Amino acid sequence: MNGHARGYRIHTTGFSKNVLPDDSPLVKGGGCWSKYQLAVTKQNDNERTTASHFVQGDPFNPAVSFDRFLENNDLLLDQDLVAWVTVGIHHIPSSEDLPVTTTPGKTLSVAMVPFNNYERDPSIHSRDAAVFWNSEKFNMENQYLDLNGTCIPKFELPSIM
Fold first, then answer.
1. How many Å apart are CA 87 and CA 108, to the nearest integer?
2. Which of 53, 65, 66, 115 is most exposed, with the fewest beta carbons within 10 Å of its own?
3. H/E element, 81
């Protein structure tokens, strides 16, 4: 990956679309963060969370408004960044939810994954790999795996010290 820019990829198992219209009083107020499935901003110490615990008290005039985070339109090049990711905000109640709301199979997740982080695939140095197959079902005459060979490249590992 020599010469390629390094970074991070945002990987998600899916998004749950916002069911409220953008002109809804709640979305304009305390739930304004729900309009954005992904937003990237310059890191600011005074922008620690997209909402407030107090939003329940006054959802139409919130103490924290995520829309204000985006108003300044900061340049992002060579800055510390924050990725604000919303994977879902609503729950459709069902009779199976009682007495406890179920969660298995209803999850969404997000992860930051390195992108172009290594000069080459680090697994190339794994010398203890194993291949298993059922010998009764595996046709040894038409095999693609050299059982006596090696797939380890012929180069020296760089010295750590």
1. 6
2. 53
3. strand 81-85
Query: Token match 């959802």: residue?
Result: 59
Give the model's pLDDT for residue 80: 93
At residue 37, what is the residue type? Q
pLDDT at 157: 57
**Which H or E run includes 114?**
strand 110-115
Contact in structure between 112 and 137 (CB atoms under 8 Å): no
Which residues are within 8 A (CB) of 145 and not within 5 positions of it... i.e. 6 or more apart? Answer: 131
Q: What are phi and psi of 143, to 5 degrees?
A: -80, 155
Peptide bond into 153 cis (omega under 30): no
Q: Which pLDDT score is estimated for 6? A: 86
Provide Rg for the chain, Cα atoms: 25
- Of 111, 73, 106, 80, give the one whose Cα is nearest residue 92: 106
Q: In 3D, which of 117, 119, 115 has the Cα closest to residue 1? A: 119
Percent of the chain with pLDDT over 70: 70
Whole-model pTM over 0.70: no
The pLDDT of 86-91, averaged and rounded, is 70
